[in-house]
Automatic annotation (TrEMBL):
GO terms for cellular component: cytosol. Belongs to the HAD-like hydrolase superfamily. CbbY/CbbZ/Gph/YieH family. Transmembrane segments: none annotated. Pathway: Organic acid metabolism; glycolate biosynthesis; glycolate from 2-phosphoglycolate: step 1/1. This is phosphoglycolate phosphatase. It comes from Meridianimarinicoccus roseus. It is an enzyme of class 3 (hydrolase). GO terms for molecular function: phosphoglycolate phosphatase activity. It catalyses: 2-phosphoglycolate + H2O = glycolate + phosphate. Its EC number is 3.1.3.18. PANTHER family: PHOSPHOGLYCOLATE PHOSPHATASE. Pfam families: Hydrolase.
Length: 223
């Protein structure tokens, strides 16, 4: 069975606003104020919690080190979990595209580098968890993307065959994951990198979710 595996942050949903807010919560607790901007620093938000803390503490001055990042990370996760869907929005047409793929006979699942519990919480609050046959997060397995194992697990847990699967993502991590798994990769053109994803040379670019069905059918026919 052919399977379409989606990344979450920056692919299915713009989660940057809530991620930045959680990082700024950590900085405010240290008396530093809001060090990250919800729009200008969106790309860093999709690189993960530690990347945001590193950027913010770097702006605060030379007195902060790796220990501050590690100490702030659990606080960031807690703040994010408490307000995980305040600013987050699904990209236009995302769930219509998922429904259309399922109607055409594809299995669909999610493979994300967000911790599984947080990903499950977000998808539940957005009301879309049940649309996916499986969810594999950063801590579901001992390894995370770009290791191909989480991608393969996301396919298999949805009832698919890893040899017949496509990855939909938004960053070099997703491209490298797909290449490591020997799978086609589609990168969205409306995520944090915008049209810049073309430089990553994916197998296809997705400018709009309305185009996803045709792209997937070309790369991996359902039959």
């Amino acid at each position: 069975m052919a399977t379409v595996v989606f990344d979450l942050d920056g692919t299915l949903a713009d989660t940057s606003g809530d991620l930045i807010a959680a990082a700024n919560h950590v900085f405010r607790a240290r008396g530093l104020g809001d060090l990250l901007h919800p729009e200008r620093d969106a790309l860093t938000a999709f690189a993960g919690g530690r990347a945001m803390l590193k950027l913010g503490f770097g702006r605060a001055g030379p007195g902060f080190a790796a220990e501050d990042i590690e100490a702030g990370y659990p606080m960031l996760l807690g703040a994010y979990g408490d307000a995980i869907d305040v600013h987050t929005r699904l990209y236009p047409g995302a769930m219509d595209a998922v429904a259309a793929l399922r109607a055409d006979g594809y299995r669909v699942s999610i493979c994300t580098n967000k911790p599984e519990a947080l990903a499950r919480s977000l998808l539940t609050r957005l009301g879309v968890l049940d649309a996916f046959g499986a969810l594999v997060g950063a801590d579901t397995l001992p390894v995370r993307k770009p290791d191909p194992a989480p991608f393969r697990a996301a396919v298999e847990r949805a009832g698919g065959d890893p040899a017949r699967a496509v990855l939909i993502g938004d960053t070099v991590t997703d491209r490298d994951t797909a290449r490591a798994a020997g799978a086609p990769c589609v990168l969205v053109g409306f995520g944090p990198l915008g049209d810049g994803v073309s430089a990553l040379e994916p197998d296809a670019l997705l400018p709009d979710y309305a185009d996803l069905g045709g792209i997937v059918a070309r790369l991996m026919p359902v039959g």
